[in-house]
Design goal:
Pfam families: DUF7707
Number of strands: 7
Distance between the termini: 38 Å
Strand content: 25-35%
Mean pLDDT: 70
Largest sheet: 3 strands, antiparallel
Number of domains: 2
Keywords: Signal
Structural class: alpha+beta
Order of helices and strands: EEHEEHHEEEH
Protein name: DUF7707 domain-containing protein
Number of helices: 4
Radius of gyration: 23 Å
């Protein structure tokens, strides 16, 4: 039985899809079961041990992974994930298909193996919740400005800035920097 498995790759909002076709029945059921166990463990790790959806079917290799914050982790970048197992199997099948043809096998490497995840999920560190705030005020005490930003697992929230006189809050730049830093940390 030949099955098509789609692995979506995305980076910074730009998405591309790679279609790896593997022969699911050529992979022993025990191996597929081990893949599903590893996939579930990796999903749990990447969802900070609180996924809302985490399933895997060893018969079809269909899987789901959704974190409690509503996001899907970038499984395709990690070892011990279904996208990587499928990618590695597609590479193995491609290499076997073109045995003796070094140019075709080189193409298997660049078009498939180089797309396989390589990050170790054991080295994953959850994005820490950070809070930054700053307050400015005039010497007369009549005007104040406040800017604050908080990030929790990559979700940014910014408080509004207010002033009771003509003084301009100077800490707004710090709030924007905190948001940018939080989003950058989330992307890592």
């Amino acid at each position: 039985m030949r099955s098509s498995v789609f692995v979506a790759l995305s980076a910074l909002g730009v998405a591309s899809a790679t279609n790896f076709t593997i022969d699911v029945s050529s992979v022993p059921l025990t191996t597929r079961s081990n893949w599903c166990t590893a996939q579930s463990n990796t999903c749990s790790t990447l969802c900070d041990n609180s996924p809302t959806a985490n399933s895997c079917d060893p018969n079809t290799l269909d899987y789901t992974c959704l974190c409690s914050n509503g996001s899907a982790p970038g499984l395709q970048y990690y070892l011990q994930s279904m996208p990587t197992f499928i990618c590695e199997e597609a590479y193995s099948e491609c290499n076997a298909e073109y045995a003796g043809n070094s140019a075709a096998q080189s193409n298997c490497t660049t078009s498939i193996q180089d797309q396989c995840g390589s990050l170790n999920p054991d080295n994953y560190t959850a994005a820490a919740a950070t809070t930054s705030s700053a307050t400015t005020s005039t010497v007369a005490g009549k005007s104040t400005g406040t800017a604050s930003a908080a990030t929790t697992s990559g979700t940014a929230a910014v408080a509004t800035t207010s002033s009771t006189a003509a003084a301009v809050p100077t800490a707004v730049g710090h709030g924007a920097a905190a948001i940018a830093l939080g989003l950058f940390a989330y992307l890592l």
